[in-house]
Amino acid sequence: MVERFTVSRRRALFGAAGLAGAGVAGAAAVAGAAAVAGCSDDGSSADTTSSPPGLVPFHGARQAGIITDAQDRLAFAAFDVSPGVDRAALRDLLVGWTAAAARMAAGQAVADDEAAPQSPPRDTGEAIGLTAGNLTITFGVGPSLFDDRFGLAARRPAALTEIPAMPRDNLDPQRSHGDLCIQACADDPQVAFHAVRNLRRLAQGTAVLRWFQLGFGRTSTTSDSQATPRNLMGFKDGTNNIKREDTASLDRFVWVGEDGDQSWMRGGTYAVTRRIRMLLEAWDRDYLLDQENVFGRTKVSGAPLGAAEEFDTVPLTARGRDGELVIGEDAHIRLAAPATNNGVTLLRRGYSYTDGVSQETGQLDAGLFFIAFQRDPRTGFIPVQRRLALSDALNEYIQHTSSAVFAIPPGVRDDRDFWASGLFAT
Fold it and tell me: Is residue 426 part of a domain?
């Protein structure tokens, strides 16, 4: 049974910023009415064409920002719950976050009413006058949330396990892991940043920002209606990604089914994030033929080597006149292909990033912020990445610098529901 959300008197004010939880929670019904109108008949969120232009419905059976048409910009944040916070306060935070997220997804400020002149504004204001920009805000919980702090250990799904160390990893622990995550995607970078910034303010006194990543330029497509984008190495990325129109593959590889070991996660999914720095200076000195052999695709057309068009079947067994495989044994396309991974398929939703210049090397700190959704990372991302880490020709030009995994609960059904409500149900 899902509880109707209430905010305790003790948590009516969110931290030192004086952001009134009552004002946020009371606004949820308004946002709910605006967003529910765009839901499909089965209650699924965001991934319909019935919503007004620029608005993605927030409420529904599944969270938006997973199979929603991939937007142009990303703001991704991981949080740690503050010491001394109890289960009730954690629940109240998620209630307040949900209400605020619903409003922002509907193109509204965090709260209708203005604060007193001598108090901080309830909304930071940088999105005033901007459209919603197809904003989606997706929420998840990390493995560390299920320690002994909140009495949730028995509700940790078996699939929510930390990603093990991989060969060649050079992970920064300050950029990895987290109790909670927020993924904000939009076609306007200021709208996406505004969403995370305001949720961080609402968390003051309850959770602290652990790490934050901005992304530009989607590196995959989640719909048949979208053209395949290019990554910073200049190659088309995500050609064979699962599309939202392929419901059979989504049910098989992405959504947690009725056989999931935790009822609160059924209908949800799992996200793995990896910050993958590209050694672009070295890559830019490599010759074209070698670049194409590394990926196993032609650079301009995106066609697999030995094929004519981008979406042609990858000819994994084709051999040239010299008898050698056209697509090498260590080509990225071969090692990542479902056909060579027992059919394993991931829904990718990554973005390019740039974080300036490395002060140690004077080289660009840029690359791919990889995001993949799947039904179970133990049978999805982990075995595929282990294989890539051992043999991929691309490893010469990349370095994995952060890693995280999160359980992404099913969607928020209506304005009486909240993120991960099933986790707190009695």
Answer: no
* 305 CB burial (10 A radius; 0-12, 13-18, 19+): buried
pLDDT tens digits, one per residue of 227-270: 999 999 999 988 999 999 999 999 999 999 999 999 999 999 99
Using one digit for the tens of pLDDT, what is the confidence trace for 106-131?
999 998 877 778 888 899 999 999 99
User: For residue 252, how far is the Cα from the chain centroid?
Assistant: 19
State the total domains in the chain: 1
Q: Which long-range contacts (CB under 8 A, 24 or more apart) does 7-10 make?
A: 7/92, 7/95, 7/96, 8/88, 8/92, 10/89
The range of the structural domain enclosing residue 333 comes to 73-110+130-419
Integer Cα distance of 11 and 7 in angstroms: 6
pLDDT band at 50 (very low <50, low <70, confident <90, very high): low
Is 415 inside any structural domain? Answer: yes
CA distance 163 to 258: 24
CA distance 350 to 369: 6
| Residue 124 falls inside a structural domain | no
Phi and psi of 404, rounded to 5°?
-160, 155
Q: What is the dihedral of CA 41, 46, 50, 55, to 10 degrees?
A: 150
pLDDT band at residue 286, thresholds of 50, 70 and 90?
very high
| Rg, the chain, Cα only | 22
Let me know if residue 53 belongs to a domain.
no
99 token code pair: 């209400």
